[in-house]
Design a protein that fits this description.
The protein has 72 residues and is mainly α. The protein has one domain. Helices cover 67% and strands 0% of the residues. The protein is built from 3 helices and no strands. Helix 1 (13-23) packs across helix 2, helix 1 (13-23) packs across helix 3 (46-67) and helix 2 (25-39) runs antiparallel to helix 3 (46-67).
């Protein structure tokens, strides 16, 4: 199965975050731990789960944008 995302031109935040996690396995493991810690609390609350991850994602997306500025 192929998954596709529709995004606005220039909106590459998901790509920045993905690539940063791929290049930084320690941070990827932290993200995994965060997601697992939120799982039960937000099992039936998708919006709450998404919001609870937002600060982590924003922090490392901002770092990634500086690291990969010319990539996208």
């Amino acid at each position: 199965m192929v998954h596709a995302h529709i995004r606005l031109f220039g909106d590459n935040d998901e790509l920045y975050f993905r690539d940063y996690l791929l290049d930084n396995p320690v941070i990827a493991k932290e993200f995994e731990s965060l997601k697992l810690s939120l799982w039960k609390e937000f099992e039936h609350n998708r919006d709450g789960y998404t919001n609870a991850k937002s600060n982590f994602i924003r922090k490392y997306t901002d770092i990634a944008k500086k690291v990969y500025m010319s990539r996208y």
